[in-house]
Design goal:
With about 450 residues, the protein is of the alpha/beta class. It contains 15 helices and 13 strands.
Length: about 450
C-alpha cells in the first residue's frame, strides 16, 4: 500500500512546526505497523481548515489521489483533514472513485466506500465544525469581556510590549516615541522603516519593516494606553501608554487626514518634487528628464527648469536664511502661533468626558436619540477643532534638531531629504516662473543659462 500523510495545525505560535511534526511521526508509526510505504507527506502548518482559506498541501494531496499515485491517506485525526462538510463530500467522492482508503491515528479507519462509513465521516466532520464554531464564540465573548475591562485580549506580542501585552519593552518604546515625534516633525514613514531596518530592528514577528508596518504600529490605540474592540476605542487599557494620548491623536490625524499634506507617501528623491510651485497654474512640479537633463516640470508643461540649478540656488538661499542672527524671529513667523498644549489637552479630555456623559444619559433614558445626536455632533465639532490645534502645535516641531543646532544651515543640509523638505515647506514657498528664451544678460561661455530671478522664494509669515 502506497500511503500519503497529511498533517495540519491551525495555529503555530512559535513557528517551529512542532505540532505537524508530531502528527507526521505518529502517522509514520501507524504506516510501519501496517506494513505500508509512505510515498509522500503533505503539511499545512499554521493554517485553519475552518476559515475556508486555500490549503496548498491539501490540494496537492487531492491531485495525487486523482492521479492514482496513492492507495491510502493517513492523518492524525479526521479533523486534521476536514472541518467543512463541503470539502468532506469532495474528498469522499474522489477517494471512492479512485479506491483510496483513509486511516487515522486517533479515529481509526474511515470506510468512505459505504454509506455507513460516509455517515460516520459526516458526523465527525459536523462535530469538528461545531466544536470550532463554539470555540470561536467563546473566544469572542472572552475578548469582549477583556475589552470592557481594559485587559489584553491575547495574540501575538505587540511591538513595544513583552509577550504579556502589558510590560513595556524600553528600547522599543523609545523607538515608537521617537517615530511619533519625527512623523510630527515631517519625517516619512519610509525613512523610519529604512532607519529601523539599518539598525537590525525587526517587527514583533521577526519581519523587516516597511512603510505600511510602521504606519500600522503607530496608529494602534494601544500605543496611547487605550483599549480597542472591533475597531472602536472602548476606554483605558491595563497597560501603560508609550506615546502620550494627545500626541498619539496628533499622529493619527496626520496619517489619516487626506486634507493634510504629509510626507508619508512615496519617497521623493529631489528637494523640489511635489513642493515647488508652477508660476503659471499654481500646481506643484515633478522631476523628469528633458533633453537628457533632469528638470522640474509642471504637469501641463508651463515651466521646465534644470533641476540641479534650481536646487542649488534654493539650498543656498535657505542656508543663508537659517544662518542669519535673527533666526528666532524668522522661525516664529514661519511656524504656527504658539499654543498652550496642556490646556488644549485638558480641554480635549473634558470634551470626551462630556461625550461619555451624553451616552450614559441616553442609556438611562434621560435624553432622546435626537438630543444625543445633536449634542454629539456639537461636541465632536469642538473636539475636532481642539485636535487640529494640538496637531498644528506638534507639527511646529518640524524645525527641532535644526533651529537649535550650532550651525542651523549645515544641520539642514545634513538632514534626511524628507526633513529638509518639511523644513523648507515650513519656511517658504518656492515658485518657478518661465525663464524666457535666449541667454541671460552677461552670460559667459561655459556658464549655465539659469536665471535666479525666475525663482521666487516667499517666506511664510511675511
Amino acid at each position: 500500500m502506497r500511503a500519503t500523510i497529511y498533517a495540519r495545525i491551525s495555529k503555530d505560535r512559535e513557528g517551529a512546526g512542532l505540532g505537524v511534526q508530531t502528527q507526521e511521526s505518529d502517522c509514520r508509526a501507524l504506516a510501519a505497523s501496517l506494513g505500508w510505504t509512505v510515498v509522500s507527506v503533505h503539511t499545512d502548518n499554521d493554517l485553519s481548515a475552518y476559515s475556508g482559506k486555500p490549503r496548498p498541501a491539501y490540494r496537492a494531496m487531492l491531485r495525487e489521489i486523482e492521479a492514482g499515485e496513492v492507495d491510502v491517506v493517513l492523518a492524525w485525526h479526521t479533523d486534521r483533514l476536514h472541518r467543512s462538510v463541503t470539502e468532506l463530500e469532495e474528498y469522499a467522492s474522489l477517494s471512492d472513485a479512485h479506491g483510496v482508503a483513509t486511516h487515522t491515528v486517533k479515529a481509526g479507519h474511515l470506510d468512505l466506500a459505504t454509506s455507513s462509513g460516509r455517515l460516520v465521516a459526516r458526523l465527525l466532520g459536523s462535530t469538528a465544525r461545531y466544536e470550532t464554531e463554539h470555540m470561536v464564540e467563546r473566544q469572542q465573548r472572552a475578548k469582549r469581556r477583556s475589552a470592557e475591562g481594559g485587559r489584553w485580549k491575547g495574540g501575538r506580542r505587540p511591538f513595544g510590549y513583552e509577550a504579556d501585552g502589558v510590560t513595556v519593552v524600553p528600547a522599543e518604546a523609545t523607538m515608537l516615541r521617537d517615530a511619533a515625534g519625527t512623523v510630527l516633525a515631517g519625517a516619512s514613514l519610509r525613512g523610519i522603516a529604512k532607519a529601523w531596518n539599518a539598525r537590525g530592528i525587526t517587527t514583533s514577528t521577526g519581519k523587516p519593516w516597511d512603510m505600511s508596518a510602521v504606519r500600522r504600529v503607530l496608529l494602534r490605540p494601544r500605543c496611547a494606553g487605550l483599549m480597542e474592540h472591533q475597531g472602536q476605542i472602548v476606554g483605558a487599557a491595563e497597560w501603560p501608554a508609550i506615546i502620550p494620548e494627545e500626541q498619539w491623536r496628533a499622529v493619527v490625524e496626520m496619517l489619516t487626514n487626506p486634507a493634510r499634506r504629509t510626507t508619508t507617501g512615496n519617497a521623493r528623491k529631489w528637494l523640489g518634487s511635489g513642493l515647488y510651485v508652477c508660476g503659471v497654474c499654481g500646481s506643484t512640479v515633478v522631476a523628469t528628464m528633458a533633453h537628457d537633463v533632469r528638470a522640474y516640470r509642471c504637469r501641463d508643461g508651463h515651466v521646465s527648469r534644470t533641476l540641479a540649478d534650481v536646487d542649488h540656488y534654493v539650498e543656498a538661499v535657505i542656508v543663508a536664511r537659517l544662518r542669519r542672527p535673527d533666526l528666532a524671529d524668522i522661525l516664529a513667523k514661519a511656524t504656527a502661533p504658539g499654543a498652550d498644549v496642556p490646556a488644549l489637552e485638558a480641554q480635549s479630555v473634558t470634551l470626551r468626558a462630556r461625550l461619555d456623559q451624553l451616552a450614559q444619559m441616553f442609556g438611562r433614558g434621560e435624553i432622546d436619540a435626537q438630543s444625543l445626536t445633536a449634542g454629539t455632533r456639537e461636541i465632536d465639532g469642538r473636539l475636532g477643532d481642539v485636535r487640529t490645534q494640538i496637531t498644528d502645535a506638534y507639527s511646529g516641531t518640524v524645525l527641532s534638531g535644526v533651529a537649535e543646532a550650532p550651525d542651523p544651515g549645515a544641520a539642514w543640509l545634513e538632514a534626511p531629504l524628507d526633513r529638509r523638505q518639511a523644513v523648507l515647506a515650513a519656511l517658504a514657498t518656492v515658485t518657478l516662473h518661465k525663464s524666457g528664451r535666449g541667454r541671460p544678460a552677461g552670460w559667459q561661455p561655459g556658464e549655465s543659462y539659469f536665471r535666479p530671478e525666475t525663482v521666487r522664494i516667499e517666506w511664510r509669515g511675511q
